[in-house]
Amino acid sequence: MTTTTREDCLALDRADPLAPLRDAFDLPQGVIYLDGNSLGARPRAALERAAAVVAREWGQDLIRSWNTAGWFDLPGRLGDRLAPLIGARQGEVVVTDSTSLNLFKVLASALAMQERADPRRRVIVTERSNFPTDIYMAEGLTAWLDRGYRLLLVDSPDELPAAIGADCAVLMLTHVNYRTGYMHDMAALTRLAHERGALAVWDLAHSAGAVPVDLHAANADFAVGCTYKYLNGGPGAPAFAWVPQRHQAAFSHPLSGWWSHASPFAMAPGFAPGEGIKRALCGTQPVVSLALVECGLEIFERTSIEALRAKSLALTDLFIDLVEARCAGHPLELVTPRAPDRRGSQVSFTHPHGYAVMQSLIARGVIGDYREPRIMRFGFTPLYTRFADVWDAVAILKDILDRQAYDITAARGAVT
Amino acid sequence: MTTTTREDCLALDRADPLAPLRDAFDLPQGVIYLDGNSLGARPRAALERAAAVVAREWGQDLIRSWNTAGWFDLPGRLGDRLAPLIGARQGEVVVTDSTSLNLFKVLASALAMQERADPRRRVIVTERSNFPTDIYMAEGLTAWLDRGYRLLLVDSPDELPAAIGADCAVLMLTHVNYRTGYMHDMAALTRLAHERGALAVWDLAHSAGAVPVDLHAANADFAVGCTYKYLNGGPGAPAFAWVPQRHQAAFSHPLSGWWSHASPFAMAPGFAPGEGIKRALCGTQPVVSLALVECGLEIFERTSIEALRAKSLALTDLFIDLVEARCAGHPLELVTPRAPDRRGSQVSFTHPHGYAVMQSLIARGVIGDYREPRIMRFGFTPLYTRFADVWDAVAILKDILDRQAYDITAARGAVT
């Protein structure tokens, strides 16, 4: 039984060195937003930046802004700014396209590299519980290559060592599971993959800006991720791709659009790949959405990922403790690891009426989300979530459960 | 020798029924913008719309906006709104991803359909002068399929009939050439392709919103295009893909992301394609950029493409006449067809110092652009270009040429 009180939470907020960062965000009144793992909140700066891009760069400077406003350089410039959050180096990251498409690019390149090294490797190992689009893109790619590739889906991280065999070309994992918040040991699994001759591709959708990531220390091969979750880049904002310098010369994929060409404005009728991370680009990018990514990244430069991680663990520990203490007796089951080193920045509980309970929470201003099956998912973004928010959210959850104030016949909507 | 005067041009503007539409755009003072074929001008409504999406939909409604603000439905809703401009039907168009990526999708599907129908067809016919990214994407796709596909690049439209042989799988053309403004006869070439057993894929980047297009009347098979040129959707705004109802059941491509899944929120670990045009989607879309596309499309609903075409031809005729009359004696050569039915909404002239002359024009507020080799490109968007603008642009061009007021040593930048 926890002895924590709301006063204790308020005291934690007063002592929180990250507390001032909440002012960098525009958050609606009366809402406890625990869904920053799905769509990050809006940086205040994003409104002014959107107006500047639309009114001045587009409206007044028009076509000249491709050069004068640096529109062409945005993918690389944002990538360089994002790089420190994931242990990448300058010139190794671009912000571009969607996570699905970036995964397609790096997976295609990884398979091609393996095909040259050892053509017997025809298996991509991943988890059945991986975010589905990663699996779908791997299916699409391998079906079209039509060279005997197959996906091996494991049901638990424990099965990975046995699954990564001599036929494994690529180990493709999402670092933090979108449903459970389970965090893989990136360094250990990458080492295992390499020992068995496989390449390791990591999806950082629920990691970048949420947990410390050091791609170089882990010796990872490729990574992709999302900017609109913990990085607060805006709805559907372009994703990122990481190609370490050591793989850039060999990097190639079928989506060879003009932005990846060595000399795009030579307008030559034959493809010649550009140098470096430019190879991960394809076509023209959505500038307004892309530019707003910078507003989110700027905020991270006012703190450190270590400080964020410390607060994130404190928030998720507190949430787990409070729910288990104050909602005891209700059929809630924690599916997120208790071990800090296996936990992302979210907490998920199952409830037999998880969908209905979540709808009631949302109606009461506590915004988390629901994921099949029966999972209520709560994201804790240390940039703007307060300890008192955690207390208040649990108090409302307790009230809903105690009074059974949820409608189990509610029709289901869908959120990403 | 033309007898047209500036007064005549002002009279044409006074009599122009489309003149009020110019007020729908925010155009900079002191600029004659003849580059709407590269980046369309900003609809006034776009600034307010950007603020609404960023401040209210993202900032206040947060994750709920995927449903309440219709973010999920944007690709299809915008596609339906764009459809009348290209002779497409409701449920046949989505606005999504980039032109490069959409071309990859439709070309992949066209090749797969042909592979089932007649596997001996292994040639994609296109023009060497096609916009390079189309060629690059075709190269990327076919190289990775590694099944003996090859591109056949012709040097002139006249060579197309001979090139489309029994081995031709797909005729892939850009309807209006980005450099010269040459417009193909879509119906005749599609008929020819079909007679020879090929499918016809059309890139409408320089057609949509610029010239009348009737994909169904032409019996075209697939089409893609751009929203940030004549459609004024904003810098790098997502592109469109058209898949006619008759091909939707057979439509498939390797970029099978979760937005094309039959039940994306079932989160099932196996891909099952959705119905209809949804199949042309892939991953999550950049909502802010995407939403602004609607501001451009709305303006087209206040007129007709026939009225726009009539003014476009009047503008380009006037420009050709004035340049040839007033700049006679200078080494300018028209590369755009004089025949109205072979001309898009741009006029291109070569000049030995085309790059330098264009830089001088831009410095004087006449914004066109330059394309290798030696081509000065002038786009005429009838929504906001005035007849007097044409007069004034030619007057400035004449002055620059007469005085040789251009720097032939100028370093070259690049614009899209």
From TrEMBL, chains A, B:
Name it: Kynureninase
Described by its record, this protein's role is as follows:
Catalyzes the cleavage of L-kynurenine (L-Kyn) and L-3-hydroxykynurenine (L-3OHKyn) into anthranilic acid (AA) and 3-hydroxyanthranilic acid (3-OHAA), respectively.
Catalytic reaction(s) noted:
L-kynurenine + H2O = anthranilate + L-alanine + H(+); 3-hydroxy-L-kynurenine + H2O = 3-hydroxyanthranilate + L-alanine + H(+)
Under Enzyme Commission nomenclature, its number is: 3.7.1.3
**Keyword Chaperone assigned:** no
Q: Which family does it belong to?
A: Belongs to the kynureninase family.
Summarize subunit and interaction data from the UniProt record for this chain: Homodimer.
Q: Which residues bind pyridoxal 5'-phosphate?
A: 99-100, 131-134, 174, 203, 206, 228, 258, 284
Keyword GTP-binding found: no
Q: In which pathway does it act?
A: Amino-acid degradation; L-kynurenine degradation; L-alanine and anthranilate from L-kynurenine: step 1/1; Cofactor biosynthesis; NAD(+) biosynthesis; quinolinate from L-kynurenine: step 2/3
Protein species of origin: Massilia agilis
PANTHER family registered for this protein in UniProt = KYNURENINASE
* Alphabetical keyword list: Hydrolase, Pyridine nucleotide biosynthesis, Pyridoxal phosphate
InterPro entries attached here?
Kynureninase, PyrdxlP-dep_Trfase, PyrdxlP-dep_Trfase_major, PyrdxlP-dep_Trfase_small
| Molecular function terms, GO-annotated | kynureninase activity
In-chain residues carrying the UniProt-annotated modification N6-(pyridoxal phosphate)lysine: 229
Source organism's superkingdom?
A: Bacteria
Q: Which cofactor does it need?
A: pyridoxal 5'-phosphate
